[in-house]
Amino acid sequence: MTVIADPGRTALLIAGTVVAEREGLQRLSINAVVAEAGMAKGTFYRHFVNRRSYVIALHRRFFDSLSQKVMAALVGIPPGLERVGLSLDAFLDACLDARGTEAFMVQARTDPDLREEIRRRHEIFVAVGQPDMVAVGWPDPNAASQLKVAMVAEICIAELDVRRPRRDLRRAAVQMLTANMQSVG
Hints:
Layout: H1 7-23, H2 30-37, H3 41-47, H4 51-74, H5 81-97, H6 101-106, H7 115-135, H8 141-162, H9 167-184
Helix pairs in contact: 1-2, 4-5, 5-8, 5-9, 7-8, 8-9
């Protein structure tokens, strides 16, 4: 079954990303979103119950887009060393290219409305990375995958500061995550 996106809802989500990027997630208001979208406030409430449900939808849209880009980069690549580096690069490159990364990667951490959403997303990323950690020989692949998620988040913040890839940090993360493979092999 194909889901057809509602153009009004999509326009509101695009406007929210622009507002979040410009003003920050904490200052994102329904008034600013509808003004950016050129819509009436009533239109907002036809699509979203309240600001909280809207911010969650924005967060999901941002990370769904990143996830699609990462998965596209990994098509046909079996779990292991190559995939660790490719997934890290694909995610971080997508973050640098995306609108609103600072709002959704940094500011979202302190938003109580997003706490559960962030926890859920974190669990998904950890689960996706576990096969790679098994393939590189980690005795506790869950812990290693959690560390990868944490490292990637911190590298993202460092890259946002300079608005370019930090190849040194990316290389170090891959080396740390795959060091176990060299000691096993």
